[in-house]
Design a protein that fits this description.
alpha/beta, Alkaline Phosphatase, subunit A, ten-stranded mixed β-sheet
Amino acid sequence: MMYVTHVQAGGAARTGANIQMTRRPNVLFLLVDCMRADALGSRGVPTPNLDALVASGVRFTQAIASASSTTPCVATMLTGAYSPRHGVRAIGGLPLHPDVVTLPMLLREAGYHTVAEVTGPLLPESGLDRGFSEYQLRPASAHLSDAWGGALVERLRAGRLPEPWFLFLHLWELHSPRKVLPPYRRRRYGRNRYARALASLDAMLAPLFAALPADTVVVLHGDHGERLIGSRLAYRWYRLWRDLLGAARTHKREGHETDVYEELIRVPLVLVAPGRLSPGAEVTQLVRQVDLMPTLLDLLQLSVPPELDGVSLLPAVRAGAELRLEAFLEAFGRVRGTPRDRRSGWRTGTWKYIVAPNAPDMPEELYDLTTDPRERRNLATREPARVAAFRKRIAAVEATATAAVPELSGAERAAVEQRLRELGYLE
């Protein structure tokens, strides 16, 4: 196995802001790749550790991802900005814009030891290592149940992370081919590999949660959702054909990346802050990934940069404030797709609009999610005024695009493509 470790030398860069020297809590940002919103409280799948975490914190039941692929979503979480502003618009595309400030940069300035434990396509060449004291990229085959996970839990248990720390922990257990431990390969743990991988992951979270200091703030989140086959019989036929013909010759019916439908952009979000937020609360209004950075900064009593696309969610949590947020959405298609594959979207608390901006022959889509949560009845032709309004809102976000992001060097491009090939995104 090859691990890539990037340790940034020197202390945190200072921007002139006053740094409070009061004791701050540790922060675990637990990002589970491909974790759908319905993974929490999933019917028929025993997840006692996740259930206990939800009960101890605030659950956001309508959290919306900014895209349906990992790298752009993580860039949005760590910058509080949409992709036109931060520049990361695909898995293996351009890196983070050099002028964008990141959450770990600000936390480092405030005295945090910032650590990223990531996998999948989150290469340092993407620029997402900016502000991390340690940025460790591991193989996608390394899971919490392996030696890597044991070493991480022991590091936490033994207190070998300088406090206060911010740990961005990206887990791959639910991503295809999905990690199912032997004891969970039974029907009682779910009808498919996704459900059984969820039960397996829940079991492995127990020692991780037990190793956390008592004052740790925990964010549980999914980068994007996952398309799954609905019935057990259909799933069995699908797996049979994949086994007989191979993945390359079988039409892909599970996964993500290519659309912005609800199963791909609805994600779980739980915020646990002992002594700071009341446990057991639910926020049912729409919230977004761009809101995570300002919310954490606000929770930690740090200044929130004024130029962010997101806002703090704490007024909704503490005072029930109606934020009336709406979300910009994107899907970028396959790594080697064409511009026609791109989708843009706009999501309100009740409506979803989707357009293919580079394929004018593709029909626009509009869904009333209150009466049509499965997005079956396209109302675009019946609601021209609403379509026009959503189109303008998308254009306004696109207009925030920053100056051109520098291209990756030849060596960086080669490293990215090799990683994507190992992950199966490129042949």
